[in-house]
Amino acid sequence: MATFVLVPGAWLGAWAWDDTARALRERGHTALPLTLTGLGEHVDGGGPRTDLDTHIADITGFVERHELRDVTLVAHSYAAAPVTGAAGHLGNRLERVVYVDSAPFTAGMCMLDLMPPQAADQLRHQVAASGDGWRLPMPPFEVLASSSSLDGLDEAKREVLRARATPQPFGTYTQRLAGPAEPVPGADRVLVACHDFMGLLDAGVPMLASLSMPPWRRFDLPTGHWPMLSAPTQLADVLDTAVS
């Protein structure tokens, strides 16, 4: 059985993994969702100095504090950035890294690099105008839908997501990932592609081409960008299959 450390994406806390974690435990696995600094129940711990390094330290500290070994580290969306950094620091504690509708970062990248310059500038303006210079509230769903699939999120699930989301510390978007940015040789590498990444991979986007080749293993999950909310049991099935 595997030991999963489940890291949520932007604006989310460990709560987002509740149903998937429960399903993984029913299959005999250890499932440990965590909340990053400044988010969820740790919202009061965030501040202007909360950045990508803070979240990398959250993950590595969680694994080391709980004396975990043979870890399967799972990243959803934004969490790809700190999980990539943590994977490079965990050494032989890491057995596998899984990216859910996301992809590993390379050293020198930051979240804003993934956006058109105009969109990144809009976020900076929003943070300056209404986020006290350091907080990024979750955008309206009509804005999210322009870049991320909402498939599977009915009105009830959207209400839960909206009600429980907390502003993202913007330093986690602006700070660039420092090395090392590679897990130890031999670590298993898995991609769970939902509708957003399925489209990108099938279109042959050059910067993602390596994710369709060994050592990567790809699993497709036909749902939107938040599968732990839209298809939590199916996501657990995919993760269970990936570690079998």
Ordered list of secondary-structure elements with their pairings:
Blueprint (H helix, E strand, L loop, with lengths): L2 E5 L10 H9 L3 E4 L18 H14 L5 E6 L3 H8 L6 E7 L16 H14 L4 E2 L4 H4 L10 H10 L3 E2 L1 H4 L13 E6 L1 H8 L13 E5 L6 H4 L1 H12 L1
Parallel strand pairs: 1-2, 1-3, 3-4, 4-7, 7-8
Antiparallel strand pairs: 5-6
Q: Going across the major beta sheet, what is the strand order?
A: 2-1-3-4-7-8
Secondary-structure element order, as H and E?
A: EHEHEHEHEHHEHEHEHH
Task: List the quaternary state of the chains.
Answer: single chain
- Report how far the terminal alpha carbons are from each other: 8 Å
How many helix segments?
10
Number of strands: 8
Task: Tell me the β content.
Answer: 15-25%
- The dominant shape is globular
What class would the helix/strand composition place it in? alpha/beta
Low-pLDDT windows of residues? none
Please state the average pLDDT score: 96
Helical residues, percent: 25-40%
Largest β-sheet summary: 6 strands, parallel
Characterization of the model:
The protein contains 10 helices and 8 strands. It has helices spanning 18-26, 52-65, 80-87, 117-130, 141-144, 155-164, 171-174, 195-202, 227-230, 232-243, and strands at residues 3-7, 30-33, 71-76, 94-100, 135-136, 168-169, 188-193, 216-220. The strands form 2 sheets. Strands 2-1-3-4-7-8 form a 6-stranded parallel beta sheet, sandwiched between helices. It is globular, with a radius of gyration of 17 Å. The model has no long low-confidence stretch (mean pLDDT 96).
